[in-house]
């Protein structure tokens, strides 16, 4: 027993020392901050251009982000396998070009940039929009729609707002239906055609709505219109004006962002990760990435899509520590060892109050249906499979009803782990039959308490900052859990339980 405790103590001490040592080294030598305060939000944007090759030589051209878009680019990286690479400059901006004589299998090339927002004044370049050849009937429709909107508006901005409303209510506008069907143009191109016909300067904006951890994001389009006094950005999807928050403008104009010669089935997707770091640290990391091998083998060296995944995964050990402490140190009973962790992960996506309400609803109804199934004397596998189906149907019903009632937050019920919910219902049902409702209430309440505590710790910005930027702290965390695993003394709940014996002594 003594030897086992000594061995665990030595191993735990080494793990804690090693983890804390690496953390101190990265903080002092590499300049990574331990506390995320008074720093800028730095976005890492990774563009993935994928295609399937043909028998021809391959040439992939990606239009790079513009400089005058209100954002500052800290650094850029380009990645490919065996491709020739060049940066081209012309009147339309900068372009990255990958070339290769032969490509035999589907391939992806990468462009990564680290950017931060810095508002700046700029004058957009006007891109001329030429009217497509129109028939007399189309020109007549253009004239009628433009004249009717001019009569209803007092300036160009009001005209554009009314025009967007016409397209949003296209089912009620015969003119818009005719324009879309006869010109065979997309909605945004048809709007640009009408603005050109009305002598209002306008061009499309292609950009990305930034969302932390988002994968497979695609470009969307806005309209930038000159109203006679200033340039105003409009969203053709809802008619609103102004640049949306956390919107990164990639390029202005109607030219293609990605062109692939010698390939087919091309696609352009983006992965996004937000980090809270001092600008000098980010620049320093990039400048010294070749000097310090530790940075080459850090989370930062992974593709952005994987960085976003690990940003969530690295929080799971924190939740595990909370579970270990609450069960071993406090003595809280839970339904399943790690069910509170999965519930805490679901709460990270659903928000606390909505998540707890959804969990209580699904489990409550599931227990009622499970009690009915118990009278059928089904075998365990069939019974659990039935509960899984019931849980999925319950989640679908909750999502549909929530959507109809306009409660969008409740749609996040899909983030709950279905199989775990089914097993939780099964375990609680068996516990109810063997121990009674009181024990079910104790374990269910304990699971919720531990899950809520884990959620509060995991959602703390300091914890998120430390786990992502100093993942070696998890090594020290492992040492702490090993030490807690050898604890055999009184739990806090037992001290309260035996308080009368302490008074007698």
Distance N to C terminus: 29 Å
Largest sheet: 4 strands, antiparallel
Alpha plus pi helix count: 18
Tell me, rounded to a whole number, the average pLDDT: 78
Approximate strand percentage = 15-25%
Q: Which structural class do the helices and strands define?
A: alpha+beta
Strand tally is: 12
Assign an overall shape: globular
Uncertain stretches of 5 or more adjacent residues? none
Biggest sheet: strand arrangement: 3-6-1-12
Order of helices and strands: HEEEEEEHHHHEEEEEEHHHHHHHHHHHHH
Quaternary structure: single chain
Q: For the CA atoms, what is the radius of gyration?
A: 30 Å
Helical content band: 40-55%
What does this structure look like?
The chain has a domain at 312-470. The two termini are 29 Å apart. The strands form three sheets. It has a four-stranded antiparallel beta sheet, covered by helices on one side. Strands 4-5-2-11 form a four-stranded antiparallel beta sheet, with no helix packed on it. 50% of the residues lie in helices and 20% in strands. The protein is globular and about 95 Å long. The mean pLDDT is 78. It contains 18 helices and twelve strands. It is an alpha+beta fold. Strand 8 and strand 9 (231-234) form a beta hairpin. Helix 13 runs antiparallel to helix 14. The protein has helices at 2-28, 136-152, 156-168, 174-183, 187-197, 279-287, 293-296, 304-313, 316-330, 339-350, 352-373, 380-405, 418-435, 437-458, 461-469, 473-485, 492-497, 499-504, and strands at residues 40-53, 58-63, 71-79, 84-90, 93-100, 107-117, 202-209, 220-226, 231-234, 247-252, 258-261, 263-277.
């Amino acid at each position: 027993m003594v030897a086992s405790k000594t061995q665990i103590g030595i191993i735990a001490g080494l793990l804690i020392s090693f983890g804390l040592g690496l953390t101190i080294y990265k903080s002092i030598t590499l300049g990574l901050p331990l506390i995320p305060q008074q720093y800028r939000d730095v976005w890492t944007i990774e563009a993935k251009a994928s295609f399937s090759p043909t028998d021809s030589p391959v040439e992939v051209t990606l239009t790079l982000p513009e400089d005058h878009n209100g954002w500052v680019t800290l650094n850029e990286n380009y990645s490919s396998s065996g491709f020739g690479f060049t940066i081209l400059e012309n009147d339309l901006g900068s372009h990255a070009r990958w070339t290769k004589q032969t490509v035999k299998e589907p391939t992806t090339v990468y462009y990564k940039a680290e950017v931060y927002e810095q508002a700046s004044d700029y004058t957009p370049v006007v891109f001329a929009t030429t009217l497509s050849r129109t028939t007399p009937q189309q020109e007549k429709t253009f004239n009628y729609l433009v004249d009717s909107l001019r009569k209803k508006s007092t300036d160009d901005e009001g005209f554009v707002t009314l025009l967007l409303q016409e397209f949003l209510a296209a089912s009620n506008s015969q003119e818009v239906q005719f324009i879309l069907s006869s010109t065979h143009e997309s909605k945004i191109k048809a709007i640009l055609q009408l603005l050109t016909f009305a002598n209002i300067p306008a061009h499309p904006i292609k950009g990305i709505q930034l969302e932390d951890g988002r994968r497979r994001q695609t470009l969307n389009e806005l309209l930038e219109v000159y109203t006679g006094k200033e340039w105003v950005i409009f969203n053709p999807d809802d008619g609103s004006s102004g640049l949306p928050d956390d919107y990164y403008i990639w390029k202005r104009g109607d030219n293609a962002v990605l062109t692939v010669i010698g390939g087919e089935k091309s696609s352009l997707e983006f992965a996004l990760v937000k980090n809270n770091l001092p600008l000098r640290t980010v620049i320093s990391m990039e400048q010294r990435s070749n000097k310090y091998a530790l940075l080459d083998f850090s989370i930062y060296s992974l593709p952005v899509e994987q960085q976003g995944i690990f940003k969530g995964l690295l929080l799971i050990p924190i939740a595990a520590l909370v579970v270990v402490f609450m069960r071993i140190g406090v003595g809280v009973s839970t339904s399943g060892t790690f069910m509170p962790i999965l519930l805490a992960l679901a709460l990270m996506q659903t928000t606390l109050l909505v998540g707890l309400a959804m969990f209580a609803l699904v489990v409550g109804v599931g227990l009622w249906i499970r009690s009915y199934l118990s009278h059928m004397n089904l075998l365990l596998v069939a019974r659990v499979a039935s509960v899984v189906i019931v849980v999925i149907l319950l989640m679908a019903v909750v999502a549909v009803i929530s959507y109809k009632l306009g409660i969008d937050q409740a749609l996040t019920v899909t983030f709950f782990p279905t199989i775990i919910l089914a097993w939780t219902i099964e375990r609680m049902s068996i516990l109810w039959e063997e121990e009674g409702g009181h024990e079910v209430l104790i374990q269910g309440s304990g699971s919720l308490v531990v899950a809520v505590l884990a959620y509060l710790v995991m959602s703390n910005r300091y914890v998120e900052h430390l786990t992502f930027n100093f993942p070696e702290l998890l090594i020290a965390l492992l040492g702490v859990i090993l030490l807690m695993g050898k604890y055999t003394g009184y739990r806090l709940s037992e001290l309260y339980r035996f308080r009368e014996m302490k008074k007698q002594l």
